[in-house]
């Protein structure tokens, strides 16, 4: 027979009576062989392995054998003990497996949740049942509570971190939005700068073209100015010469007349009269030629010399020439002022050219700055895009962190809820278990009454509903289907009602519109009536006016007929008609007025000429009388001077030649005067152009000032833009640093959250594993105890009660084997008295009759 031994690994601890956990191990190990002897490994003392004490312990002193030689009874006892050992061997193998599983489970899972004596089972077939005396809550619940409190603290810290990250993300979003707005403003400003730059370039080009035109015009003006000065000086010189010559000719004529008078006195009176008449004729012819010359000169200088005497004409001509000279001097002054203005405009044009060149250089510099600003804006846009990408990455990371936090919160909440739920279930299961038994019958009765009431309510004359659940459910389904149909019908009716209400509202609106139109039509009718009454009054007044006009027309026609008869146009009026009679009368009146004016003018001119001639004749007569007196006095002198007659003729010829030359010179002067007038008009035009140029130069000055102000504004804006760009760069750097900090913080928080999540997952896995081990442990214990856990709901307290019974049996078996060991040292001889003393002193259970063995029963029956 092979022996079965326990090793150190399979050490069997002695379990206390109160429970399975915290059982101290036995000091020594024991072995069991097939002979029924159990050896203590510490001292190698054999003892019999039986579950009950031997029969000799229960015998009295009278029943004790007389001598140790009675071996038959001992042999039978040994056989019975071996049979019992064979039975216990199988039980010990099962117990060994159970205890090893218990030992491994207790050593591995000290944190197994044992709440109030309940094994946490997730199987719904085995709900937790209240034990008769639940043990107190151990350190595992406290550990879970502490872990839950630490997890809540960490969760609150993570929530604060998440809120801070959300706030920082909102701030970064706001900053990015502000930067987007600033970048858009900068782009619009850069675009406006580009447009202003293009306008300034176009304006500079137009100013350059204008400056070129002004240079050309100033050159032409200087040339025209030189020519005008030369012509004016020549004209002034010629006018002085003409004045000197006219004075010299007048003196010579007077001298010749005197000599002529003295010459006539030497001749006889008749020849003298003839010559005098010839001289008068010649003088008249010369006077006529001189008058013609004066008229030509007056026509050339735009002067009326037809009326008036020669001295008056000469005075007018001289006055006109003086005015022309004054105009010439004034034009010279203007020309000098124009030259000064031209010089100043040239200086201003030079200054404006320099300013334009400076503006061009500044525009180029601004363009370069603008290109730099464009590059900086491009860089800023790239930085902004990078910041947006980093922001999106941060948003995604934050979202992931949030999701992880939410998942961890959900897991933590689920664990906390599960713990709270379990504690609540543990606390309320007793009450529910007590109350559920009492309320089950009441609930059943209420359910029956409820079924009866529902059946009575659902049944009618056509349908009778029984108290079964299926009939009630079918009836409720049919009622719900009919209610759905009715609800659909009601919805259709509601839709129809809504449509009808809409149609009614539209009809009401149409009715209101018709009423408003009728009111408007009534107002129009009243207005038309008022207008009709007004028109009737106006028509009656117009009829009265028409009658008055008809009478006025009749009078007017009669007046026209009378006027035609007076103006001798009655035949023409009959031929033409009354329509054109007024025009004919007006034309006739204009003709008469014109003829009367011409006749009056001719008469006045004729009278004036006659008066002038009479006056001249009177003056001539007086002068002739004086001349006659003088001639009488000087006849002697003329006779003496008769010899100088040839010289007078020569001088007369010379005078006639000089007069011809003077006429030619006057004609030439008239041509030069016309040229001078043309030049004067040209100079006036040039003066107008110069004034226009001055106005343009003033405008250019104003424009240049505006450009300078604009340039100053651009410089200020450039400085502002530089400051803005520097601020934006600093803000971008700050945002980058903050984003990096937030990124580092988020990565740290993510790492911490991932670690915590990993630890919580591991803890949850460990809890699930331990729970599974506990469930398996419970199933194994129940199966080893012979309980059907798959078909019956076995409570935990029953398993614990059976385990306690098993442990008690084990303790009793250990005590029995100890007694057998001490008794078999000297074949039950030594120690018998001690055993008896022990049995007497120890509390004994009431004796029960032993069952008879089959062999003894057989012999007894025989």
From TrEMBL:
<feature type="coiled-coil region">
    <location>
        <begin position="621"/>
        <end position="770"/>
    </location>
</feature>
<feature type="region of interest" description="Disordered">
    <location>
        <begin position="48"/>
        <end position="72"/>
    </location>
</feature>
<feature type="coiled-coil region">
    <location>
        <begin position="148"/>
        <end position="203"/>
    </location>
</feature>
<feature type="compositionally biased region" description="Basic and acidic residues">
    <location>
        <begin position="1"/>
        <end position="12"/>
    </location>
</feature>
<feature type="coiled-coil region">
    <location>
        <begin position="501"/>
        <end position="538"/>
    </location>
</feature>
<feature type="compositionally biased region" description="Pro residues">
    <location>
        <begin position="125"/>
        <end position="137"/>
    </location>
</feature>
<feature type="compositionally biased region" description="Low complexity">
    <location>
        <begin position="851"/>
        <end position="862"/>
    </location>
</feature>
<feature type="coiled-coil region">
    <location>
        <begin position="384"/>
        <end position="411"/>
    </location>
</feature>
<feature type="coiled-coil region">
    <location>
        <begin position="232"/>
        <end position="259"/>
    </location>
</feature>
<feature type="region of interest" description="Disordered">
    <location>
        <begin position="843"/>
        <end position="862"/>
    </location>
</feature>
<keyword id="KW-0175">Coiled coil</keyword>
<dbReference type="InterPro" id="IPR039139">
    <property type="entry name" value="CCDC170-like"/>
</dbReference>
<feature type="region of interest" description="Disordered">
    <location>
        <begin position="1"/>
        <end position="32"/>
    </location>
</feature>
<feature type="region of interest" description="Disordered">
    <location>
        <begin position="103"/>
        <end position="140"/>
    </location>
</feature>
<protein>
    <submittedName>
        <fullName>CCDC170 protein</fullName>
    </submittedName>
</protein>
